[in-house]
Amino acid sequence: MTRIAVLDDWQRIARVSADWTPLMARAEVAFFEAPFVDEDDAARGLAAFEIVLATRERTPFPPSLVARLPRLKMFGLTGSRAALIDIAGMISRGITVCYTGGGPSGSSTAELTLGLLLAAARRIPAGDAAVRAGRFQEGTEAGPLLDGKTIGLIGLGRIGARMAAYCRALGMKVLAWSPNLTDEAASAAGARRVSKEDLLSAADVVSLHLVLSERTRGILGATDLARMKAGAILVNTARAPLVDEAALVAAVQSGRIIAALDVFHREPLPVDHPLTRATNAVLTPHLGYGVIEVYREYYQQSVENALAFLDGNPIRVLQSAGG
Questions:
Q1: Got the DSSP string for 98-123?
Q2: Is residue 33 part of a domain?
């Protein structure tokens, strides 16, 4: 019987997001609810599976891992883009790579970005902890008013444009920059295009909304973070490697900036990472896209893709790494 692995179901939501019964009648389906320790652990754990249904890119699949999975015949993405998965290499090996729709993941990520911004500005996690510890307001700093402040959006695509609308509703001034942004596109989103340098020096909040690529990797380094105002908030719900990790940790540890982060260079974030000990950081465990409505589309279409592959008529097939 065909063996199917459903990976990294950390929130234990896959089973209730779709009807797996038709697939379970034809294949052995295993749900992995914990991350692999490393590539060797992933290679051992997945060696016997013909089909892998990934949850986004929580498990990286570099060429070295793909080469260690000779039984793999079909790989299912949730969504259609994954920087940490060697899609081109899989296709070249004859592995069928299927994708799913993304559901309302743009809205869900933008909503979480707004939530992180508000949590960081108004010290909501510290206030929650104080109430639970019987200290009420004691030890909770007063945060700034966002009305009248300036947000700088690095990236003004689908998610960035939603953030622009949210922040305008809060009475914030909106600046934007990305490598290809035009004045017309910025204006259409209710923002003003400026240089990256001007954005960083003027913004009270900087929020990242770029796709990770070789061109955007490390787009914020130590020099860029040093341009930010003292006490400014940096929000990242896009991809961690957009920001140099050492520079970010140094800026947070020094107390110069406040970080509000949903993405990390290593996920799950190790418990001993310096960010976990930073009182001026708000951290969420990569929840950006993770809402019920998105998971339903991910897993319902993953089941459909696997059934179609077993029938010999695969659907939603990627022909190349670009789509």
A1: E----TTHHHHHHHHHHHHHHHHHTT
A2: yes
Same domain membership, residue 303 and residue 172: no
Query: Is 239 annotated as catalytic?
Result: yes
Paired tokens of 184: 């017309």
Give me the domain span that covers residue 232. 105-283
Alpha-carbon gap, residue 20 to 322, rounded angstroms: 29
In terms of domains, do 120 and 225 share one? yes
Taking the CA atoms of residue 50, residue 51, residue 56 and residue 60 in that order, the dihedral angle to the nearest 10 degrees is 10
What is the distance between the alpha carbons of residues 14 and 19, in angstroms, rounded to a whole number? 10
pLDDT digits 0-9 by tens, 58-100: 999 999 999 999 999 999 999 988 889 999 999 999 999 999 9
- Model pTM score: 0.95
Active-site hit among 50, 57, 111, 267: 267
Which residues lie closer than 8 Å to 141 by C-beta, 6 or more apart?
123, 126
Instruction: Say which CATH number the domain at 217 has.
Output: 3.40.50.720
Report the distance separating Cα 244 and Cα 249, nearest Å: 9
Q: Which helix (H) or strand (E) holds 306?
A: helix 292-310
Rounded distance between C-alpha atoms, residue 117 and residue 111, angstroms: 10
Q: Are 72 and 49 in contact (CB under 8 A)?
A: yes
